[in-house]
Amino acid sequence: MARTNDPEGLRQRLVDAAYVAFTTRGYHSSAIHDLKREAGVTGGALAHHFPTKKALGLAVIQDRVAEAVETTWIAPVRVATTTADGIQAVFATIVSELERKGAVSGCPLNNLALELSREDEAFQAAIEAIFLRWRTAIADKLRADLRAARIDDFDPDAMATLVVAAYSGAMAMAKASQSVVPLTVCAEQLTSILQNRTSQ
Amino acid sequence: MARTNDPEGLRQRLVDAAYVAFTTRGYHSSAIHDLKREAGVTGGALAHHFPTKKALGLAVIQDRVAEAVETTWIAPVRVATTTADGIQAVFATIVSELERKGAVSGCPLNNLALELSREDEAFQAAIEAIFLRWRTAIADKLRADLRAARIDDFDPDAMATLVVAAYSGAMAMAKASQSVVPLTVCAEQLTSILQNRTSQ
After folding, report:
1. Are residues B38 and B98 in the same domain?
2. How many beta-carbon pairs below 8 A join chains A and B?
3. Where in A34-117 does DSSP place strands (E)?
4. What sign does the dihedral B34-B38-B44-B48 (CA atoms) show?
5. Which A positions 2-61 lie with beta carbon below 8 A of chain B?
6. Do B24 and B59 fall within a single domain?
7. Domain that holds residue A156
């Protein structure tokens, strides 16, 4: 392979290839020599940017997985009129993307959390930080709903934890059944629960 | 290693060792030669009972993982007075077990579902069958609550899906944070949601 004068582009290609591999095939199942081929980089370039597989794993979590949660969940919830609307919109987008792809590979964050959290403290801390930002964004939106008197008084942090848990679990069930049904069912249930608590 | 005259005991030891390995370290991360050592069996004995790693994986899912879901979830929900009581009892038992062990390795079913569902149809079917039995047991209990007029009219199958999803996701978050807090929070939220819908 030719030398490149674009080290940042090369680093991005590596992280992109590793993101796809780690969140679908799994971290341990992804061989470094396959990643080099998929990213089109030499072993020397890989070693320059990521001296260890763990360094590449951390970059995938801190850059790409964090970005995926931001784009998929945090931003749409923030701009929605209410939390219920935001949740409905997020699930609807995810369901239509899965239907377009014809396959459910699961939630990138949960796939990596289940594989890597227990084996390494740096992985665990990086994953936990993303879960925290995700829950906090939903809880903040619920607090805004409360202030606007759109919903009854309940614990926004606890409800945010339930929303994240229900989504993560529904995605695992969707992956197991290769069907979006668990996601559409949970979206309806969560929306209905939040709407039942809406002040009239 | 000596020959054994207890082929069934030997098979059990293999499935036991593989259950622990596959649901904690992961299926792909568990080397066959480690499993032989952990179970104390020869390669010949292993090949006799399980000609392939996949056959051993299927036995783990169909025997041990199904049994774990039956013991942990289905049986306690069935004998509880109401679904809400059952859910509370299940979460309380799991939380105290995790606190005793001092570590969260996650839900055996979800760990394997996320690792294996997409790569093999036999794994996927076996995992999906367990999710279905689990959801059905909770939905049946909710229907019994409805018949006894203890709860308002809502869709028992949809609510059962939400309960399973919330538990699975809470366990993934508990694993990521090595803390039982997501489980206790989701247990309170689910119980409160079911109780809010209780007829007075």
Report:
1. no
2. 147
3. none
4. negative
5. 24, 26, 28-29
6. no
7. 60-196
